[in-house]
Design goal:
single chain, 7-stranded mixed beta sheet, 5-stranded parallel beta sheet, 11 helices, 12 strands, 37% helix, globular
């Protein structure tokens, strides 16, 4: 794809501007671009279309889709934009101020190469006043839905009976049963890539051994990862307060200066903080039941968990194009026949 060629100066300049403005780190951007290049070169667009049932008779031609893009990770909105464009619908994208430069380099190349595709992008929501979209896709918490819905409706940016497709999963779980180097490196990548921010990032680890049993061994792998991928953002003081609280109550923890791992089965709330739980498959099933839709994915190392759908831990930060945010295939959702 021309977009990801080494001589694409627009993408190169967008990456440099993103780094210069301290929006994301160069290692994280390179990782994201490398993953997308691998997936696109493996003909995963065709595979995604096939899996979603996209045909000349089942598509979203004639629909208007408004995407309110997230910006917590570099190019995190790529899959949503690609799914809308594959569906045949009109694409209207409200870009995030946290990631305003990278995605437009992809959209502009498509608009130039395939002029029949309708692409409308802007950083201001007000730009979409009067759009009357058939669907609005956005990532946010359940609490933010009423506010977003009100803003969209005030702008007349969605049809009266238009559908909101909300992505609200917050984090993922990893279940490991060994301390092999591949397992440890895959776990560290899943936990620490992008500073652990993103719904596919592992915020909870379930293992048959406690944190103290491998803390020193595990932190060696963390340091190895950080040498190549320094954490881009620093935590706020809340993390230090949590460390002090844990110390006061005698909770097992690992303090890594810019990241905290604590042994608790509470729901993850803090940035740059992961939870470790000593447990087995039963614990994983109980957690998925307790936390429900807050969980994006449960990862394993090939071990099956009865009653729980799992993905490979090695794919946590290396997903296929057809991965399902909140369990929903956006391409399939947009192209399904009306009820």
């Amino acid at each position: 794809m021309r977009w990801l060629r080494s001589d694409n100066m627009e993408l190169k300049e967008a990456i440099e501007r993103t780094v210069d403005e301290h929006l994301f780190s160069m290692p994280d951007i390179r990782h994201r671009v490398r993953v997308l290049k691998q997936k696109l070169e493996a003909d995963q667009i065709q595979e995604w279309a096939h899996r979603s049932g996209l045909t000349d008779h089942q598509n979203a031609f004639g629909k208007k889709i408004l995407a309110l893009h997230a910006g917590n990770l570099p190019l995190v909105s790529f899959q949503t934009a690609l799914g809308i464009l594959l569906s045949g619908a009109e694409y209207h994208g409200k870009l995030s101020r946290k990631d305003p430069y990278l995605l437009p380099t992809f959209l502009d190349i498509l608009r130039d190469d395939l002029q029949r595709i309708s692409i409308n992008r802007h950083i201001e929501l007000h730009h979409f006043k009067g759009l009357k979209a058939d669907h609005v896709v956005f990532a946010g918490s359940d609490d933010s839905v009423p506010e977003v819905r009100k803003a969209i409706q005030t702008l007349d940016a969605i049809e009266e009976n238009g559908e909101f497709i909300v992505r609200s999963a917050k984090f993922s779980i990893a279940y490991i049963t060994d301390e092999e180097p591949d397992t440890m490196r895959n776990l560290v990548e899943a936990m620490f890539r992008y500073g652990g921010r993103g719904c596919r990032s592992v915020a909870v680890v379930v293992a048959p051994f406690g944190l103290n049993e491998l803390k020193c061994h595990f932190t060696d792998y963390v340091e190895e990862f950080w040498l190549r991928n320094p954490q881009h953002q620093k935590p706020n003081p809340d993390l230090a307060y949590q460390f002090a609280f844990n110390k006061a109550i005698g909770r097992n923890q690992a303090w890594l200066d810019d990241f905290l791992i604590q042994e608790t089965d509470e729901v993850p709330e803090l940035d740059f903080c992961s939870h470790w739980i000593k447990g087995d498959e039963h614990a994983v099933r109980e957690l998925t039941h307790r936390w429900g839709t807050q969980i994006q994915s449960v990862y394993g190392t090939g071990n099956q968990i009865n009653g729980v759908e799992t993905e490979l831990l090695s794919q946590a930060q290396n997903p296929n194009l057809w991965w399902k945010p909140d369990g929903v295939d956006v391409l399939q959702r947009l192209t399904r026949p009306p009820h």
